[in-house]
Amino acid sequence: MKFDLESQATSKYIDELNLQFESFPLFCEGESKVVRELGNNLVLIRMKPTLFSYKANRYAIVEGTEQYRLEISRILWQCLAKAGVTVSIKGVGKHSYVSEKVTPVPVEVVVKACHVGTPKHIYKKMESYQTRFGQYICPGDTHEPYVRFDWRNPLPERDECLPIWIANQYIDIKVAEQTALKSFHVLRQFLSPRKIHLQDICFFITQDGKEIYGEVSPDCMRVKYEGDDLDKDVFRQGKSADEVLNKYRKFLELIQLPTIN
Q: pLDDT tens digits, residue range 21-38?
């Protein structure tokens, strides 16, 4: 089978594989995905309807989120691939997707273009200190995108920022930084005409730093539409399962539109 990320024939073939999902050898299973081996260095992956927030100390199963995450990722993977970003995903079906077999890297590559999330919470009183350029960094401020490398701790522990030397032992930080920044800019250019503001995102990138291999969905980014959260922050804020589903649905509807005038 010749895989094509945008091919309907590929999608139908993956749907057929999905019917036999349990029969394929298990490669690994995490909190959010089940990965099964297909052979020929390919894997079949199903997302789980799980949500977890370290900050809110909250875990839940929200049925339906996995389908929105898959469909949103499909559109954004296609967007990245068209722009020349290498992705490991070969094709997407209704309930699962096929990817190159990749050994997971225990490091997340985070791009932030807004002072939100972890930096806002752990750097106390930062807004009180003037930078060497005569400015202040205040909660919610937008800024030039930067890249951070985080060690992926097992749940429920918090992921932790890595010193550059340690991060470089597990992933090529220079190449990964370039891949992450390019991917961020591609996604921002795609989302902005739809009035979606991308504040930050977490990428899963291969050890050589060249290839995106994880989902690209509201579970791993912060996005706002007209000041409204369309991401996992809704879950962090203690909102109901229906509210989470509504926000993910809205995100999908917006990115399916050509643009918004």
A: 999 999 999 889 999 999
Residues in the chain: 261
- Contacts of residue 139, defined as CB under 8 A and 6 or more positions apart, other chains included, come to 115, 116, 120, 127
Residues of the chain with CATH 3.30.200.20: 8-100
124, pLDDT greater than 70: yes
* Nearest residue to 66 via CA among 257, 246, 239, 245: 245
What residues have CB less than 8 Å from 83, skipping those under 6 apart?
A: 182, 186
Query: From 3.30.470.20, 3.40.50.300, 3.30.420.40, 1.10.630.10, which CATH number describes the 107-243 domain?
Result: 3.30.470.20
Is the separation of the CB atoms in 79 and 5 below 8 Å? no
- Quote the mean pLDDT of the chain: 93
Architecture per CATH, domain 8-100, reads as 2-Layer Sandwich (3.30)
pTM of this structure? 0.93
Residue 46, helix vs strand vs coil: strand
